[in-house]
Amino acid sequence: MTTPEAEQSQSLSDAEEPVAEGAGSGEAAGPGEDAAEGGARPEERLERAVRAAEQALIEFEIAVETFRVEVENFSRLHHQKLGPMYTRLDELEAEIAETRAARTGDPEDIRRAQEARAQVMPMPGVEELFHGWLDSEEGLFPEAEAMLTDRPVRPPQRVRPSEEARKLFRELARKAHPDLAQDDGERKRREEFITRVNAAYARGDETVLRELSAEWAAGPVPPERRPSRSEELYARLEWLSQRKEMLTLVARELEESAIGSMLRLASDDPDRLLDDIAEQLLAQAAQKEAELEALRG
User: Fold this and answer.
1) What is 222-237 written as a DSSP string?
2) Which pLDDT score is estimated for 168?
3) Each residue of 36-89: pLDDT tens digit?
4) How many whole angstroms separate alpha carbon 47 and alpha carbon 26?
5) Minimal CA–CA distance to 208: which of 221, 219, 220, 195?
6) Long-range CB contacts (< 8 A, 24+ apart) of 251-254?
7) How far is the CA of 101 from the CAs of 71, 110, 177, 267, in angstroms?
8) How far apart are CA 132 and CA 127, in angstroms?
C-alpha cells in the first residue's frame, strides 16, 4: 500500500517538469519540436502546465480517497470484529479485581474492583432513548444505525476493496473527476456521479462500479477545452496549488491517526492485521481466565 504522501511526491514531481520546462503532458518531443517551442504562445505553455498540474492533483486525490476508505473500513471492521473481545477482556479484568477484593477486603482493592466494573457497565436507558428504533433480535435496525452513524447500511466486507474494485474506481475517478469540468453544470454532474462512485467503492461493490463505468461511457462527452487567457490559467494554477495543500493536510492527518499508523505497519495485508490482533486478544483472554481460575481456587 502506497501512502497518499508518497504518491503525491511521485505525481507532483512528474508534473513539475512540464511546468518548469514547458514540455508537453508526457509526450516525447519529435524532431524540430524544440525549435518550434520557442515560438509557442505563452497561453499554450500555460495550458500544458495547467493540464500537468490537474493530472498530478487528480492522482493525489485518488490516493487520498483510497487510503481514506481503507482507514474507515479498518476502523469499522476493527470495532465489529474485535469489539466483543475487548469487552470480554474488560469483563475478565472486573471479575479478577472483584474476586481479589472479596478475598482481601482491602479498601484499595475494593476501589479498583469498582473502577474495573464501571468499565463494562452498559449505558442505562438505551431502549428508552431510542424508543422503537431497537430491533429485539439484532439491536438497531440497519437503516436506523445508518442514519445515526452516517454509515452505509451494508458494512464493508474487507479493509481493502478488491483489486478489480480499486481498478474500476481509479479509472472512473480519472475520467469523471469534477476538476475536469469546464462549467458549473458539468461540475455538478460530475460531483454527483463521483459521490455514487465513492459510495460503491467504500462498499467494495464491483457490480455497481461496472454499471457506473458503463453509465459514464454512455453519457454526454465533455466539451473540448477552449483556449484560455493567461490570467485565467494563472488563477487555475493558484487554485490547484491551494487544493494540493489542503489535500496534503488531509493525507497527513489520515497517516498520523491511530488507525492510519496501524495500516502503515501492515501495508501488504491489512485484513491479516485484524486476524493477528484477534489472536493476541484471544491469548490475553486465556491468560486472564487462567488468572481468574487461580484466584477462585
Assistant:
1) PPPPPP--HHHHHHHH
2) 92
3) 445 557 778 888 888 888 888 889 889 888 888 888 888 888 888 888 888 889
4) 14
5) 195
6) 251/3, 251/4, 251/5, 251/8, 251/60, 251/63, 251/64, 251/67, 252/5, 254/4, 254/64, 254/67, 254/68, 254/71
7) 41, 5, 62, 44
8) 8
